[in-house]
Backbone:
DNA sequence: GATGAATGAGTCTTCATTCAT
DNA sequence: CATGAATGAAGACTCATTCAT
């Protein structure tokens, strides 16, 4: 299924992926039939199988694409920042903004985690993102800007905060993503830098 | 489908729910057929429809049960603690331990979030748990033990950290749940209490 | 797909096999759809898959059954005959009669030979029948009733004559199977016993 | 679909027929798709439908061609032989050699017999070949070289022996076609000339 | 209470064929 | 002549659900 596509073909394929992603996010992967997808686009069923060898493959491709895109966004946001803590902050903010702009895809990540055949692909992508965060954390620790702790655990904690806040406040309640991002950053930096005893002073 | 069940009936029903939950968690809700469930238990299809009006109902019932159980566990862990921060800490630890002991159910929560008909039920349960955490946070703020911030946001941040660490380190990597819980508590308290500038000294 | 069947179940299964065999013989294996089969029997599609795991499996089962039946018939015909030549003659006659009574099945043998996945099963069955004939031929040669020649080749020659005459004169032209059998026997015995030069006298 | 073809066109068409015949013989007519054929030749689908109006037509054309070729070969082998028995012998040998060189096509004959729409064309071709053999047999009988018997029946018996031995020993077991042909001739002449009682002498 | 045969709408997928480019 | 995207009817198979026994 590695077809060399014409310009029109590429557009068609993207169209299918976008539409399908929206449906999958809305009704779920299984409840969305291939028939529904092609009908929604007003094309014949054959079109689908011209571009994808199966429904599963389509989903996997959407997943891969989304992960690449998210990562690209994060990279661009961090780019040339020297301070590891600043890199973490900008990474969180970038994730949040991306999540706000792609609620469909964020939702698919959720589902992908629930079936092994998709979880595999998901984990591979997540590992890259985590490795990135781990890198920043290690730098910060090395530079004495952060108390010593398991960087992998910290990286996942950041991920957890970011995802949960994005899901609840951005996707479900449509709050301002900047504000949510700021809250996430605040919380995470607190978690990373260690607690300050309020009463102890 | 509100049958008065004999003792044997109740056991049967629980057996069905446990087995189904395991399958749902392992292969996913949709890929698991009713036939597979009853065959796995060595009973006829009639049994299934004697206790549940549909597959969907079964899932919903598992979900409700799991949420009740988790909540009961958390309540018991917090019980008679006076310090709100201590209550939060024990709540996190209790969640982690529960999650370690019920990875199946934790997995189902994930899936339930991806289809609206289940997400509804899920949210209702989550709201209760969040309301609880919000309550503790508010207390802590009121008692001057925590800087002022949006308690709902903080509660969700805690939830995010707990879930992500449980999923990654307990379910996927089978690490010691006590240690993971401690890391989660550390991170969350840091996030709640506010950042301490290491270099600012 | 190894179900223990009730009496009714066994009848159903046989009904499906008989009907399918007729359709396969009439229109061919591929052009006959499962839908056509179940519709012809006035049952739902599920019934088919309750008894057979696939269309291919059904065909294979029909094939196996037919081969067993043919073989049983041949065995019964030969039974307690001492003379190997007589055994061959009766074997040919039995095949011919069976073929006349089961033109459907005879036709399926033809098709089965054209696709590897079926040909395998077919060859296994044919080998048994051939082995039988080879045995008789060897006996005849040993007893000096037949000139020495490759018994396997002779056995196949007999098979070829029998099949071709059955197909052409019994199936296509509906001639009397006794008469055709006699012609086959005459030809084969001639072939086996060696030529008699008419002019050589 | 009666196009006047350029030289290149004729070559293309032959290429399609040869390749398709090989695939049909290997995997069967139905399991072989038009897409597979054109892809195997590295051409577009348009090419196929430029030369053939349908897949069925292609098969029919392959069939007709094969029958003509076989017949031409037989004719050439018999050519100017006076003795009808010799003509039969050479006919058998020619069939065997042709069969060895065209196992693909021989296989297609088998399949063609299993579906009515192809069987028709097949029978027409077979009738010609049989008529030929019948002619020789009648001659032999008339010349007193062969005992009187139904010539049509005898012709088919010869056909059966030839096909079966070719299929089993040449196609499946790749034995020497000359040797197999000799065995076929021996058996058939025996069958034609009548049995010689070994013990009776 | 329990069984398992039966239903049939619905799923994914294939493929012969057409046609704009 | 040739390409390859597009069509859509049709196919094999699944599965939640029902019901006679």
Residues:
């Amino acid at each position: 299924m590695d077809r060399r596509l014409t310009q029109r073909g590429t557009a068609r394929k993207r169209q299918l992926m976008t539409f399908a992603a929206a449906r999958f996010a809305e009704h779920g992967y299984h409840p969305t039939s291939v028939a529904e997808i092609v009908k929604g686009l007003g094309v014949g069923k054959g079109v689908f199988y011209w571009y994808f060898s199966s429904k599963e493959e389509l989903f996997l491709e959407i997943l891969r694409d989304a992960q690449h895109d998210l990562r690209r966004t994060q990279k661009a946001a961090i780019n040339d920042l020297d301070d590891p803590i600043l890199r973490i902050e900008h990474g969180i903010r970038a994730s949040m903004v991306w999540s706000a702009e792609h609620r469909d895809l964020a939702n698919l990540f959720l589902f992908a985690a629930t079936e092994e055949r998709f979880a595999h692909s998901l984990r591979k992508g997540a590992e890259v993102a985590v490795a990135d965060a781990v890198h920043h954390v290690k730098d910060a620790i090395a530079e004495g800007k952060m108390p010593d702790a398991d960087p992998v655990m910290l990286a996942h904690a950041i991920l957890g905060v970011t995802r949960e806040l994005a899901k609840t406040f951005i996707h479900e309640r449509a709050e301002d993503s900047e504000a949510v991002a700021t809250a996430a950053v605040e919380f995470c930096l607190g978690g990373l830098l260690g607690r300050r005893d309020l009463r102890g002073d």
In short: Chain B touches chain A through 52 residues (CB under 8 Å). The mean pLDDT of chain B is 92. Residues 138 and 150 of chain B are 9 Å apart (CA to CA). Residues 33-35, 45-46, 48-49, 54-55 of chain B lie near DNA strand F (CB under 10 Å from a C1').
